[in-house]
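seq as requested:
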Amino acid sequence: MAIGMKELIEDARSRIEEIDPEAAESELRVNPATLALDVREAEEFSLGRLPDALLIPRGMLEPKAALDSPARDSELSDPERPIITYCGSGARSALAAATLQQLGFSQVRSLAGGFQAWTQEGRPVVR
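struct tokens:
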């Protein structure tokens, strides 16, 4: 039996760790090796993003992250690198975090509430 989008996201969230904006900002400030990975579309990214974020839209994640992919992004070459995924609301980033875990990334978390929660709390944004 097929599941719906809500169940798909709930399943992903049950398998990943989410991090709140305050903890994410602290980690990004303290540990410069941590990658803020924006999985939104380029149009969304151009309107505002977390400082030093890397854009890899959700639809391009697998070829850009799989360790055996010739299209792999060099920023994702270390499966031990700490990564915080984020999107607009936290749904796509939960799916992305689950995918990265399946691809062998061991220190990946998703930003709870996404960019929306980040900006509502007045956290730094690059425009």
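The helical segments are 5-15, 21-30, 42-47, 61-65, 91-102, 114-120.
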